[in-house]
Amino acid sequence: MRVVAIASICFSLLMMGMSILQQRHIAALEAEIGVLQKTLATLSKPEPGLLRSGNANPRSRTRLLAIQPLATGDSGRSKPSITDVRVADTNMQSTTAPKPAAPKSPPPKAPVPLSPQRRQVLLEGREFFNPGPIEPSPYPVGPNAVLQTGQALQINYNGTWYAGEVVGMAEDGGIHVRYFGWDSHWDEVVPRSDLRIDPQAKEKAVKQYGK
Questions:
Q1: Three state DSSP letters for 12-59
Q2: Span 69-117, pLDDT tens digits
Q3: Is residue 77 part of a domain?
Q4: What interhelical angle do 201-209 and 116-123 show, nearest 10?
Q5: Domain holding 195: CATH number?
Q6: What pTM value is reported for the model?
Q7: Which of 16, 31, 42, 62 reaches 20 to 30 Å from 54, CA-CA?
Q8: Which domain holds residue 91?
C-alpha cells in the first residue's frame, strides 16, 4: 500500500509539472505571437512619401488628358481620339509603380554598320534601337504652329534633343509625342516650348546611330 501511495504521489507531481511547463510554453508562444503582430503592423505601415510617384519630371503635373486628333488637312475625315493614360499627377498619392524617367541615350559607342535595308527599317520605325540625342534645330514650334499627326520633330529633355513625332494634342494645349526609335511607353505630353521643327530629325537619329 505504501508503494502504491508513493507511486500515486509521484504521478500527481509529474502531471502537475507537465501542466506548469505546458502553461509556460503557451504563455511564451502568446508573447512571441504578440511581438510578431506588432512587427507586421509596423512593416505594413508605409513610410511618408513612399506612396508618391517617383517621377520628378515637371511635365507629369498634368492630369490624365484626352488626346485629340490633329488636323490633317481633310475636313471630311477625323481620326479617333487617344487617351494618354501615362500622364500622371505627382501631387496625387498612388501605389502604382512610378513611370521611369524620359529616355536617356546609351553610352557613346562607335556607329554600327547599316545596310540600306536595315536603315530603311529603322527610318520606318519597325525596330527599337534607342538612339541618342541629335544636333538641336534652330526652329522652335510657335504657339500657332499647325502640327500634323506623325510629323517628325525634335523633343527637348533636360537640355538635349531627341528625334520624335507628333501623336496627338492634349486638352491643355500640350503635345502628345513619341520618341523615335523608343518604345511607346516613353510617350509623354510636352509643352510646345519643348519642341522644335525638324523634318529630318529621324534621319539624323539614324545617321548618329549607324554609318
A1: HHHHHHHHHHHHHHHHHHHHHHHHHHHHHHHHHCCCCCCCECCCCCHH
A2: 444 444 444 433 434 434 434 444 444 445 555 555 545 556 668 889 9
A3: yes
A4: 130
A5: 2.30.30.140
A6: 0.50
A7: 42
A8: 58-209
